[in-house]
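During the no-cost extension, the postdoctoral fellow (Dr. R.K.) reprocessed legacy sequence entries with the updated structure-token encoder. One reprocessed record is reproduced below for audit purposes.
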Amino acid sequence: MISSFLLLLILIILPLSSSSACTDSVHSGYSYDVSLHSDLTVSFSTTSTGSSTDTASTLSLLVCSKRSSWFAFGFGNGMSFSSVLLYHQPSSSSAAKVVEEKYISGYTKSSITDSTLLSSTSSLNTDITGTTYGTCFNAAIPYTTLSSLNSVIFALGSSSSSSSSYTLSHHSVASTATIDFASCSLSVSSSSKNSVVLLHAIMMSVSFIILMPASVTIARYFKGSKRWIKYHQMIALLVVILVVTAWVRMLVWGGRGNMKSPFMHKTVGLILIILAVVVMPGLGVFRPKKVEPVTEEVDGMTVERVEVPSTPNNNNIEEEKRYKKRKLWELVHKNTGRFLIIFGWFNCFTGAVMAAKYVDKSYKILYLVFGWVILCWIGLWAFKEISRRQGVQNVMVLQHEAGGLKLDEQADAKVNEEL
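Re-encoded structure tokens follow.
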């Protein structure tokens, strides 16, 4: 199970950030190529009016996307207050696709306005087409200081067979990067909004696929340990911390993120948060004391029970109330835990589907990883349940045999007395 946890963590963390070096350009008229995303490449060259590239007058770009959707490339430290070149359909699906310069002042569609800050000249490149490079546009950007353009931003729309995917909508991939156009080095930022979503996925997956099942397993099958309740409570507290952190991050950054959560995922997630953060800790705080063991006579033998008899003694009303209160608490606590695990798994799978759709198709492997970890838990529970039931049966047989032996001894003693 530990190996499953490590594999899960590694598979989720790896795509958070990436870096690569420039390569010699395969396109005529450009010096270098850089890959910002598996579906987006940028080729560039500089034209200098002085002895140093830092006084270059023009940065020539060729931006290519393999996706059948809108895409953008520009300059800035984030989505707000950045200037970008946008390839899209301005209005209806019948409109021609164009490259336009835009200024982005916020996180809403209305904050995107026409601009000429870059003073660029850009156009579609019809000479480079096909599956190798996708759709490309040229741009020539004049400037005084080359290093002022090192901070770049890019975004990709969702791929679709429909032409409407070229109409500007919420992006599925977006990030910032640092390109040193002088030395030709690249670093794609790990602080993109996708990383916020992925950190949310890490914390929720660890909580509902690893920690919560572990907490339930300890409570059900390892009560023989004197410290089982401490481990159970510590894991439950860690789940609360992770779930709250993951939720707050999405609450703050989710509206600015790179993918929109379906209504079902958000609704189920909200219910899970309420149960995990409010209901379960509340049940833990107001946990009724368990009814003390009582004894009764069965067939002439004194038998000790950990619960009151199935038909409580009507003369002990207080004990009967305690018994019923404890049984009700156990019913709510156990079934809430089962609900959290089942629907937590469901939401982890819907989250993996969104990650594969909006972030990277390679996240489809999470279907297998989640499924494998869940099967491990189910297999462990089945084994422990069978062993537990078999153990109960063996105890019952031993108790029956011991009781029969004691009754036989009592009968023999009575016969001897009569004789």
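The chain has two domains: 22-188, 193-418. The two ends are 66 Å apart (CA to CA). The remaining legacy entries will be reprocessed before the final report is submitted.
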